[in-house]
């Protein structure tokens, strides 16, 4: 029996040489002729499509079936010929890489403040109160809450527990304490910012706030120049529509404060958390590992994207009707949008991507999504590729889900919990949930997080009918390299901070003896525990380079790393900023 191909190496490498057998010249000539005739016949035969995947098979007598005994899903078996071929030999991925990054153990989340960071009992000034009203869906509001804490720290003000958006497209009447553990939030951040539950009272009456709004990506200097004077005069400031109102680039202590809020202080209430954990347990009973997918294939998303998915005149008519709700929404070239990678993958394309990466058909998949455009007809190809298909609705009983059904943010929180704890998470868009979960999963050990490289995948999907499955899979693995949630995929400081919290991720070095932040190259002294302390800077507040030159708001045109392994797409807020406020709320999560 021949030696098996070693997993993870290209053809022709790291193989043992077979023993040579001497043959007579006549036999060699006959053998050469037979091989030549066989080659011609194989080359002339058209490729046949796999009935499960729609892809051409490698030969006319082979259709692809996952080997159920192979836990990695790396083997594809030819059921009629009896010969197996290994798709894991192409590209970057190996048996364990489906669920883990080999480099993840070298990094860990680190959000402790520096020795120069003062306690809130020292920094908080009297008669300074900040009230913030967030905007959008659950995850857009989460970014507002995180930045509100940092803004209060910049202003040395007391923060009133943020007010959630109850009037937008999502129409969720939940308040902060019905989604997040309010007491934990206040106590955990006590040394950072003083937080109170209700607006301040003076003389038995609630102090009337002065309403204002700051520009997008306002720097600390912007807050000190624009907000602080009003705060000193009026004492209570109420900032509305508060989302992405703080610069993406801050000094390290403020970035670490962002991480303490986002990854530690914001905990869901017990009813939400407990149901989420029960759903995770039910997924784990089905398999050791599971995949979670934020599908984001709802009618509003497709209508806004302007993309076309082959549904004919019916699709064009239905999505055009949705687009007419917003007069400012211009018509886009559907084909151009697909070429530029601005369209969500279809459920079938997501399934094909996962199968080509090596996830086998019996892997349980949890889908977080609203109403899918096209309903069951659209989902059918994904369910055929992954029959072990689940949602919060299928996993929970009617009585379990009933208390949450009327509240979109609480329903979204349940999906958030399950997606966060999944072994592999797939984000099919660039919305806030995708960003926050990507950053959170980086912070807590670089758990496998897959972002479809849509721009490069588009031509691959267009020609898939003319490719063998192993050729398609090999190309998929090459294209997705750098989009799998591995450490250092994105240059520190690039991209949206919520998706790439580089200031809060430290790298172990020298056999775990010391560690350093990946955010900056400064050498930092190690303390007695062997962990490097944060760089000591000038007295607070500290301004970054773009702030020191007098800039008031962040010019963040280059937030994605050009020429690096990251989508060259603008933030989703920049796409809709000039369009319509309601659009932004709909598309944010």
UniProtKB/TrEMBL annotation:
<feature type="compositionally biased region" description="Acidic residues">
    <location>
        <begin position="544"/>
        <end position="558"/>
    </location>
</feature>
<keyword id="KW-0328">Glycosyltransferase</keyword>
<comment type="similarity">
    <text>Belongs to the glycosyltransferase GT106 family.</text>
</comment>
<keyword id="KW-0294">Fucose metabolism</keyword>
<dbReference type="GO" id="GO:0006004">
    <property type="term" value="P:fucose metabolic process"/>
</dbReference>
<keyword id="KW-0472">Membrane</keyword>
<keyword id="KW-0808">Transferase</keyword>
<feature type="region of interest" description="Disordered">
    <location>
        <begin position="51"/>
        <end position="80"/>
    </location>
</feature>
<feature type="region of interest" description="Disordered">
    <location>
        <begin position="524"/>
        <end position="589"/>
    </location>
</feature>
<feature type="transmembrane region" description="Helical">
    <location>
        <begin position="21"/>
        <end position="43"/>
    </location>
</feature>
<dbReference type="InterPro" id="IPR019378">
    <property type="entry name" value="GDP-Fuc_O-FucTrfase"/>
</dbReference>
<keyword id="KW-0812">Transmembrane</keyword>
<protein>
    <recommendedName>
        <fullName>O-fucosyltransferase family protein</fullName>
    </recommendedName>
</protein>
<dbReference type="Pfam" id="PF10250">
    <property type="entry name" value="O-FucT"/>
</dbReference>
<dbReference type="GO" id="GO:0016757">
    <property type="term" value="F:glycosyltransferase activity"/>
</dbReference>
<keyword id="KW-1133">Transmembrane helix</keyword>
<dbReference type="InterPro" id="IPR024709">
    <property type="entry name" value="FucosylTrfase_pln"/>
</dbReference>
<keyword id="KW-0119">Carbohydrate metabolism</keyword>
């Amino acid at each position: 029996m021949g030696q098996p191909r070693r997993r993870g190496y290209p053809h022709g490498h790291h193989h043992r040489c077979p023993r040579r057998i001497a043959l007579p010249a006549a036999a060699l000539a006959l053998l050469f002729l037979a091989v030549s005739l066989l080659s011609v016949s194989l080359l002339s035969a058209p490729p046949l499509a796999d009935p499960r995947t729609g892809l051409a098979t490698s030969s006319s007598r082979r259709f692809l079936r996952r080997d159920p005994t192979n836990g990695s899903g790396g083997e594809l078996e030819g059921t009629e010929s009896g010969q197996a071929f290994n798709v894991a030999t192409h590209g970057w991925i190996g048996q364990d890489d489906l669920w883990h990054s080999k480099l993840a153990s070298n990094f860990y989340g680190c959000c402790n403040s520096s020795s120069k960071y003062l306690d809130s009992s020292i920094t908080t000034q009297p008669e300074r109160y900040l009230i913030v009203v967030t905007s959008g869906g659950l995850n857009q509001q989460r970014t507002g809450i995180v930045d509100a804490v940092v803004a209060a720290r910049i202003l040395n003000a007391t923060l009133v527990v943020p007010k959630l958006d109850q009037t937008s497209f999502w129409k969720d009447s939940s308040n902060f304490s019905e989604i997040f553990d309010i007491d934990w939030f206040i106590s955990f951040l006590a040394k950072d910012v003083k937080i109170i539950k209700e607006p301040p009272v003076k003389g038995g009456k609630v102090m009337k706030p002065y309403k204002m709004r700051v520009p997008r990506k306002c720097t600390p200097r912007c807050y000190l120049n624009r907000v602080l004077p009003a705060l000193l005069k009026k004492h209570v400031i109420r900032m509305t529509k508060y989302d992405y109102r703080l610069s993406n680039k801050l000094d390290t202590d403020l970035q670490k404060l962002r991480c303490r809020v986002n990854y530690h202080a914001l905990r869901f209430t017990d009813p939400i958390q407990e149901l989420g954990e029960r759903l995770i347990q039910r997924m784990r009973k089905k398999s050791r590992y599971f995949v979670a997918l934020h599908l984001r294939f709802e009618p509003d998303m497709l209508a806004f994207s302007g993309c076309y998915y082959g549904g004919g005149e019916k699709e064009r008519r239905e999505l055009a009707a949705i687009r007419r709700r917003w007069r400012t929404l211009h018509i886009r070239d559907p084909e151009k949008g697909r070429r530029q990678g601005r369209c969500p993958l279809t459920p079938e394309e997501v399934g094909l991507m996962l199968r080509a990466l090596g996830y086998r058909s019996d892997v349980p998949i949890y889908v977080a999504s609203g109403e899918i455009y096209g309903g069951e007809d659209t989902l059918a190809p994904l369910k055929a590729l992954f029959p072990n298909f689940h949602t919060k609705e299928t996993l929970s009983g009617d009585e379990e889900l009933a208390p949450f059904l009327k509240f979109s943010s609480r329903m979204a929180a349940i999906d958030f919990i399950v997606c966060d704890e999944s072994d592999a998470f797939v984000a099919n868009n660039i919305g806030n949930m995708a960003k926050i979960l990507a950053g959170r999963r980086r912070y807590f050990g670089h758990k496998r997080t897959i972002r479809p490289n849509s721009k490069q995948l588009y031509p691959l999907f267009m020609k898939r009918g003319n490719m063998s499955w192993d050729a398609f899979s090999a190309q998929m693995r090459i294209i997705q390299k750098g989009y799998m949630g591995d450490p250092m995929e994105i240059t520190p400081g690039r991209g949206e901070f919520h998706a790439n919290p580089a200031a809060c991720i430290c790298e172990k070095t020298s056999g775990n003896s010391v560690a350093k932040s990946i955010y900056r190259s400064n050498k930092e002294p190690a303390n007695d525990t062997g962990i490097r302390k944060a760089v000591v800077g000038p007295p607070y507040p500290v301004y970054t380079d773009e702030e020191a030159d007098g800039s008031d708001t962040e010019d963040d045109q280059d937030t994605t790393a050009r020429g690096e392994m990251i989508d060259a797409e603008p933030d989703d807020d920049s796409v809709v900023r000039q369009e319509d406020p309601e659009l932004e709320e709909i598309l944010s999560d």
